UniProtKB/TrEMBL annotation:
GO molecular function: hydrolase activity, acting on ester bonds
Domain of life: Eukaryota
Matches recorded under InterPro entries: Metal_Hydrolase, TatD-like
Gene3D superfamilies reported for this sequence: Metal-dependent hydrolases
Entry protein name: Uncharacterized protein MANES_08G158200
Length: 160
């Protein structure tokens, strides 16, 4: 990235799981750090350490659906069956047609089950807890960062 950067318009590091030590240099190049359910696969202390060095104006949240199924709070996940013909009956909160997700961990879910964009609240809750922020503060912060990154001069979406 150093050889082609800096990136004044910004660049997204999708589902960032890199080290805390890399963050300052990447941020100087214009990087935004997007966090998904994969963050829950890191040791909590390591994730917290890394998150705490990310500049607040560079934090983004994502689900990476249909991938990156969060590894926490499985009983409250929204899951989608890969078989689209069963989508309505198998998209549910807390349980699915194959099994009770509340009794499973992500590694034992049927592989036909996919992540859902509505699980962004689980990513939000987890990241907020690691940053010692309220969910509302982090939601607003992430929204403003996304609006700033994705808006353009004539855009109707502007950050404040």
């Amino acid at each position: 990235m150093k050889s082609t950067g800096p990136f004044p318009a910004g660049i997204i590091l999708h589902s960032y799981l890199g080290s805390a030590e890399m963050v300052p240099e990447l941020a100087k190049l214009g990087a935004y750090f997007s966090f998904s359910g994969f963050l829950m696969s890191m040791k909590e202390q390591k994730a917290k350490q890394m998150l705490n060095v990310v500049p607040s104006d560079r934090i983004l949240l994502e689900t990476d659906a249909p991938d990156a199924l969060p590894n926490k709070e499985l009983g409250s996940l929204i899951l989608v069956d890969r078989d689209n013909s069963k989508a309505e009956e198998s998209c549910s909160q807390g349980e699915n047609s194959a099994s009770n997700a509340g009794n499973l961990v992500a590694s034992t879910l049927p592989k036909e089950m996919l992540n859902h964009p509505a699980n962004i609240r689980i990513v939000l809750n987890y990241v907020a807890s690691l940053l010692d922020m309220t969910k509302e503060e982090l939601a607003e912060l992430s929204y403003q960062n996304a609006a700033h990154l994705f808006s353009y001069e004539a855009s109707k979406v502007q950050s404040s």
